Model the fold of this input.
Amino acid sequence: MFKKLIEESTGKSPWLFHINAGSCNGCDIELVSVLTPRYDAERLGFQLAGSPRHADIVVVTGPITRQSLNRVLRTIEQVPEPRCIVTMGSCPQSGNVFRGSYAIAGPLSKYVHVDVDVAGCTPKPEAVIDGLALAAKILQEKRRAMN
Amino acid sequence: MDLPFAVEAIKGLFSKPSTAMYPAKPSTAAENYRGRIVFHPEKCINCMMCERVCSGHAITHTIEKTEEGDRITRTFYLGSCTFCATCMDFCNENAIEFTRDYHMIATKEEDLMVSGTFIKKPPVRKPKPAAPAAAKPAEAPAVAKPPEATADAKPEAEKTAAAAPVKSAESAPAVKAEPEKAAAPAPAAAPIEPRDDGKPVSDPSKCVYCGICAKKCPMQAITVDRASKTWTLDEDACIACGTCAECCPKKCIIM
Amino acid sequence: MTTILNALLYLGYILIYPGFLFCFFIGLLLCGIDRKLVARMQKRVGPPILQPFYDFFKLLGKETIIPAAANRTVYLLAPLLGLAALVTIQLMVPVFGFTAFSGMADVIVILYLLLIPALATIMGAAASGSPYAGVGLSREMVTILACELPLLMVLLAIAKSVGNAMGTGLCFSLSEIAAYQSAHGSLLFHPSMIPAALAFLLVIPGETGSHPFDAAEAETEICEGMLAEYSGKPLGVYKLSHAIKLLTMTSLFVALFLGGLGTGIVVLDAVIQVALCTVVTVIMISFVHAITARLRIEQIFKFYWTAVAGLALISLVLAWFGL
Done:
């Protein structure tokens, strides 16, 4: 029963940690708009955590610049299991318009397993909510698999 | 201490929240929102203009040789797309369309791929199977091109005029003129005739040899020499996309 | 036989009614109500009231990472120490006529016990070895220092006021304060105590680290400060402690200033106490949270040592002259 309680709660209280890996700020602003009164993701339990140690879902924006690559990977490693990685916007998925640039270390999926991709440039807040809800579901399954 | 929001907070407590209850209440995107791409392979003529103009390298294609012709699969990777709609603007055949669907959530990369396959027939073509599809472009620009949708009717009329010759040329029954294809197209006879295979002909009486068509040609099939005043078409490379006719400032190229 | 029964009774006190289980449910519930109402004041829908429960149970199921630089024992024991101290306070605060451990404690003990959760957090933060925690703990210390002076003066004012009436000079005993209030009406309705009550109300958000005074946990600025390195179960215990602290501070306010409203029936008293605690939470935590922005650390200090301490001083002077 206790395990079931934890499982249920895991899906209902996913905390986000946002990493900007060289983003143009478009996705960052749309992610914040998801938490504003207009969309209010907190009603679904989402909350922006200040430290990666508190997070469940890591939201990565930006094309993973060479400078940020190492920091992004280290930050993701700080997040306790079960964790879920969401790429927001086209940049972390492929590099988008920066693809092929000498400053870009390539798509995030080259380095870590990405659970959910939210495409768009930048995605609409509704799409972000959809993506995060899917991530929460995956999180719950991961928690179930841990038992 | 100044607390300007005290009244606002109490008001908020007793009024309806201004939250859009999204997952419970679905919402549609704004009118000209550019979301998921829809590709119409039956319209595509593989001019590759979209691939050339795409800033995110999101559009790719594969070619497979079959008996019927080249089997071409064009793929749009939404995870690399900036949704700038340049490909849609450049597509002469209106084969690319942006919809208002913003649900582009994927757990695998394949979920973000939009692709379409079509068979490109070898050069000698029969009367055109794409006649119904070719009829569409005349009315399509009004909906498909957001910046022009509100503009006056003039550009639209031009569009129609530009599209019309293509249509007539394609739907015209194939008349003789087979030997003409082999002949060099550049020094064409004075009253030029549209060719039956849909490829461009330049009218030397109007042409100023500016070379814009050569620059715009996605296949580099046109060579223009200003010094000797020649306009040459590499027939094998030409794919009859119509870009040269569209961009010609003197309107001297006939498809 | 009676000793066994007594032992069982005390065990029940510690584990169930004013103790752990009660604190757990009511604390998290208060926290949920707080979050919901803040959201509503900001014209949002807000999380479900049970959200803190989900958060707590989720954190129990997360991996606990112990930083390489941390002192393992202190790092893991500090949250439990804070929680234990808070539950202890709850056992000693009278619920109108009823006190689980009566006669043992007076206001001074409560004052010290209130320090322990904050000190435990500071210990844990220092043990985690994170620079963010370092910044957070220095701010937390300043916040404690800022709150402590007005709190002390409020308690002195109460002690003097009650002591005057009892003829004992200064009266620090919680049970006597409760008895005095049930005989003479709540202290809140004594004119000389109104500034002190206001000062105490203003201390509540500071003590609980709630919004305008949460420079120590500024999540966007210093990565949640002292909790930066915590994850999983210890973090869950910290979140629980924070929720229980809401209950402790508000029930302390109810015990000290609204003591005379009890009915004598234990169950009914408990309900009234929880209801009053909720009201105080809504006004002092949620409402203040919704309408203010975070203060800088020196602003917090200045605010408490001038405005709040001033209010407390007025009451103290009035009480001293027997008004």
About this structure: The domain at 175-254 of chain B is CATH 3.30.70.20 (Alpha-Beta Plaits). The radius of gyration of chain B is 24 Å. The interface with chain C takes residues 3, 5-6, 8-10, 12-13, 15, 17-19, 21 of chain B (CB under 8 Å). The mean pLDDT of chain B is 72.
